[in-house]
Structure formats: structure tokens, C-alpha cells
């Protein structure tokens, strides 16, 4: 498989503050990668580096020419006060273009994206009349409307109930298979991510560990990464991660290391 994004000895941080050191890994064509860790551990820092928003302090992060990202932000970033329809929001995912031809192409692309996520019937509905699951589908459509190479999901199931979470994860799996997408799933919800992705990268307390999901999800690795005793069960192809009843303490994370908060040394 072709490497779409390559980290080579990349050290990530802000100014003199280092978040993660010496990362070397690839994101390959067709990958389904989970980027998992507690809030403030560095997930967003890694995400910004792979998107090209924040260059590494040292080392390199390379992206192949022509790569296109479809980014699905967290739902709580939506401003529901704007008088926009679902179709309006989806069309925002298209590159700016002028003229009647461009506007028609934008409408057609938005219609296709809405159909892909099952929201065609709600194209004219206003944002403040959507459920959490409908908002997530709308944001997925906005990401798909630009025909991306890589689909990046930022906490896509946060705050959802079991039914909505299951539907969104199933939809992402179907879209990946149908459109041959590379998917990066960023979340703090280890159990949800572990049962969706094929590879997983843990970002915890300044440490980074990446590998096939089953290889990384061991009691030994997770206990060492999270600083507590963890039990792991593999049942019927599903992974279940639970803190041990007598399991130690959570690691202390310096609040200054919270992603997006540059600090001086």
C-alpha cells in the first residue's frame, strides 16, 4: 500500500515546549487508524501535524502530492444560531468557485453527498432542528463533498447514545469500503475506537504507541501507557478494555501540555 503520510523522526510541540518526541510511522492508503488518548495528551497536536497545519519542531512530516483531506469537526463547534440549512452547510465543504456552472456543480455534489449519508430528505432543514446523529451525518457529508482521499473524524461519537454511535460507526465503515477511503478516527473513547479501526495509535502522557489493534490492546501495554492496571478481553472478535477493580492511579498530566495551549519552558 502507498504511504500517504509519513512521519520521520518528527518532534511535535509549541515553541520550546515538546509534546511528543521522535515519531516515525506511516499512514497508508486504505488505512483505518484510530488516534486515541485522554484529553490534553497530544492527539490534536499529531492531527495538526499530519494535516500540515502545524509543522514539526524537528524531523519531517510528508504528504503525497494531491492528497485531499475531508475533515469532520466535533459537533459542538457548530453555531446553531446561523440561519443555515443542511444543504448550505454541506456546500461549504466545496472549494470556492464562481459562475453559474460552479454553483450548479456545488449543488449536485452536495446532493450526492447527502444521499451517501442518508440525509437527502433533510436538505432544507435548519441546523437547530437536527438531532445529534443528523448533525454528525451532515458534517460527514460536508467532508465528503470535496471527494477526499483521507477522511478525518474528530470525536465523531462524543455525547451520542448507543444507537446513534452504532449507526455512525456503521456508516463510516460503509463509506470507507464503497469509496476506498483512508480513515483517521480521533477520540478519547478507547473501546469505541478499538472495535472500529484496524490499527491504533495511543497517545498518553508523552508516550506514543502504534500497531495493529489486537497487538496494541494488551493488558501489559495499556497498563504501562495509562499508568493503571487494565484488563483486556477479546470476545467474538470484539475488544473490551476495563480498568482493574484494584487498579492503581491515573497518570498525572501537566495541564500545560493540553493540545493547542503553547507554553514556554
Can you lay out the helices and strands and say which pair or pack?
Elements: E1 3-14, E2 17-28, E3 32-36, H1 43-51, E4 58-63, E5 69-72, H2 86-91, H3 99-116, H4 132-144, E6 150-154, H5 162-179, E7 182-187, H6 190-194, E8 199-204, E9 207-212, H7 213-216, H8 219-226, E10 230-235, E11 238-243
Parallel strand pairs: 3-7, 3-8, 5-6, 6-7
Antiparallel strand pairs: 1-2, 1-4, 8-9, 10-11
Helix pairs in contact: 3-4, 4-5
Give structural notes.
The protein is an alpha/beta fold and 265 residues long. It has a domain at 78-148. It has helices spanning 43-51, 86-91, 99-116, 132-144, 162-179, 190-194, 213-216, 219-226, and strands at residues 3-14, 17-28, 32-36, 58-63, 69-72, 150-154, 182-187, 199-204, 207-212, 230-235, 238-243. The strands form three sheets. The protein has a six-stranded mixed beta sheet, with helices on both faces. Strands 2-1-4 form a three-stranded antiparallel beta sheet, with helices on one face. It has a two-stranded antiparallel sheet with strand order 10-11. It is globular, with a radius of gyration of 19 Å. The model is unreliable at 250-265 (pLDDT under 50).
What keywords describe this structure?
265 residues; alpha/beta; six-stranded mixed β-sheet; three-stranded antiparallel β-sheet; 8 helices; 28% strand; globular; disordered C terminus
Amino acid at each position: 500500500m502507498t504511504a500517504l503520510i509519513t512521519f520521520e523522526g518528527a518532534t511535535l510541540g509549541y515553541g520550546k515546549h515538546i509534546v511528543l518526541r521522535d515519531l516515525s510511522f506511516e499512514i497508508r492508503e486504505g488505512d483505518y487508524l484510530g488516534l486515541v488518548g485522554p484529553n490534553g495528551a497530544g492527539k490534536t497536536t499529531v492531527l495538526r501535524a499530519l494535516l500540515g497545519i502545524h509543522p514539526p519542531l524537528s524531523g519531517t512530516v510528508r504528504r503525497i502530492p494531491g492528497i485531499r483531506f475531508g475533515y469532520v469537526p466535533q459537533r459542538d463547534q457548530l453555531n446553531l444560531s446561523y440561519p443555515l440549512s443542511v444543504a448550505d452547510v454541506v456546500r461549504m465543504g466545496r472549494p470556492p468557485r464562481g459562475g453559474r456552472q460552479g454553483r450548479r456543480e456545488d449543488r449536485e455534489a452536495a446532493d450526492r453527498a447527502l444521499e451517501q449519508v442518508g440525509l437527502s430528505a433533510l436538505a432544507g432543514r435548519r441546523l437547530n432542528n437536527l438531532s445529534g446523529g443528523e448533525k454528525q451525518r451532515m458534517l460527514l457529508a460536508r467532508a465528503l463533498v470535496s471527494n477526499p482521499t483521507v477522511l478525518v473524524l474528530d470525536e465523531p461519537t462524543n455525547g451520542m447514545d448507543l444507537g446513534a454511535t452504532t449507526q455512525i460507526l456503521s456508516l463510516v465503515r460503509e463509506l470507507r469500503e464503497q469509496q476506498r477511503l483512508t480513515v483517521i478516527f480521533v477520540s478519547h473513547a478507547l473501546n469505541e475506537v478499538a472495535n472500529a479501526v484496524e490499527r491504533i495509535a495511543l497517545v498518553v502522557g508523552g508516550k506514543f504507541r502504534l500497531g495493529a489493534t489486537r497487538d496494541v490492546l494488551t493488558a501489559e501495554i495499556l497498563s504501562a501507557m495509562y499508568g493503571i492496571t487494565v484488563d483486556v478481553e477479546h470476545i467474538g472478535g470484539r475488544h473490551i478494555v476495563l480498568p482493574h477493580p484494584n487498579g492503581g492511579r491515573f497518570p498525572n498530566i501537566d495541564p500545560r501540555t493540553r493540545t493547542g495551549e503553547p507554553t514556554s519552558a
